[in-house]
Design a protein that fits this description.
heterodimer; A: mainly beta; 12 strands; 53% strand; B: mainly beta; 7-stranded mixed beta sheet; 4-stranded antiparallel beta sheet
C-alpha cells in the first residue's frame, strides 16, 4: 500500500528565511512520482514541483526545491526566501506506476511571519 | 493556459437530495479524477476514470456515488442521496497520461454543503 506522511501540522517561518516541509512516503513500487501542491486559503490546489523516483538530481522550480533522499524515502520541500504569499497549506503527494490515483499526505500549514 | 473548470463553485442542498457536480477537464487529457476534502482535512481520493470507465475507486465511493462522461467534455460526479457527512470541497482533476511524471491539474473545487 502507498502512504504519504507529513508530520508537521503547522510551521512558522520568518519572511525571507528558508523553510523545509517534511514528507516521507512508503511504497514497494520502483517507479513513482512525488509532487508538492500548495493550497492557499482560497482553496485551489496549485502544483509546485515534481520529483521522479529515477531522477538523480533534486528538482528545483524557482524558490522551491525538493530534497529527495530515496533510501530514506523522503521528499522534503524547501522554500527559500519565504514571502507572505507563501502562507498556505502544503500537500505532498505520490503517484506510482501501479495505479492511477494520487496519494496525499495530511498537509502542513505554513505561516510566514513579517 | 488550459485549465480544469468546475461548476458550481458552491452548492447547498438538503439531506437526501441528489446533486451533480460538473467538471470540464483539460481537452487533451485522458485520465480524470474526483477527490474530496472535508474542511481542514486531507485530500481524499474518490475515483479515477479512464477510457470511459472507472479504473480505481476508494471505499468512500459507494453505491451513492457515480461518475459519467456524458459528452466527451464534461465529467460529472453524482451523489444520489446526500448525507450531512458529504459536506466537503470536491475537486476534479485530470492528467494527460498514466505515467508517474504526469502532473495532476486540479479544478478550483465545488464546495458542497448538505443541510
Amino acid at each position: 500500500a502507498q502512504k504519504i506522511t507529513q508530520t508537521q501540522p503547522g510551521m512558522f517561518v520568518q519572511e525571507k528565511e528558508a523553510v523545509t516541509l517534511d514528507c516521507t512516503y512508503d511504497t514497494s513500487d520502483q517507479s513513482y512520482g512525488l509532487f508538492w501542491y500548495k493550497q492557499p486559503s482560497s482553496g485551489e490546489m496549485i502544483f509546485l514541483i515534481y520529483q521522479g523516483s529515477y531522477d538523480e538530481q533534486n528538482a528545483t522550480e524557482g524558490r522551491y526545491s525538493l530534497n529527495f533522499q530515496k533510501a530514506r524515502k523522503s521528499a522534503n520541500l524547501v522554500i527559500s526566501a519565504s514571502q507572505l504569499g507563501d502562507s498556505a497549506m502544503y500537500f505532498c503527494a505520490m503517484r506510482s506506476n501501479t495505479g492511477n490515483q494520487f496519494y496525499f499526505g495530511t498537509g502542513t500549514s505554513l505561516t510566514v511571519i513579517p | 493556459e488550459p485549465e480544469v473548470t468546475q461548476t458550481p463553485s458552491h452548492q447547498v442542498t438538503q439531506m437526501g437530495q441528489e446533486v451533480i457536480l460538473r467538471c470540464v477537464p483539460i481537452s487533451n487529457h485522458l485520465y480524470f479524477y474526483w477527490y474530496r476534502q472535508i474542511l481542514g482535512q486531507k485530500v481524499e481520493f474518490l475515483v479515477s476514470f479512464y477510457n470511459n470507465e472507472i479504473s480505481e475507486k476508494s471505499e468512500i465511493f459507494d453505491d451513492q456515488f457515480s461518475v459519467e462522461r456524458p459528452d466527451g467534455s464534461n465529467f460529472t460526479l453524482k451523489i444520489r442521496s446526500t448525507k450531512l457527512e458529504d459536506s466537503a470541497m470536491y475537486f476534479c482533476a485530470s492528467t494527460v497520461g498514466g505515467q508517474t511524471y504526469n502532473e495532476q491539474f486540479f479544478g478550483p473545487g465545488t464546495r458542497l454543503t448538505v443541510l
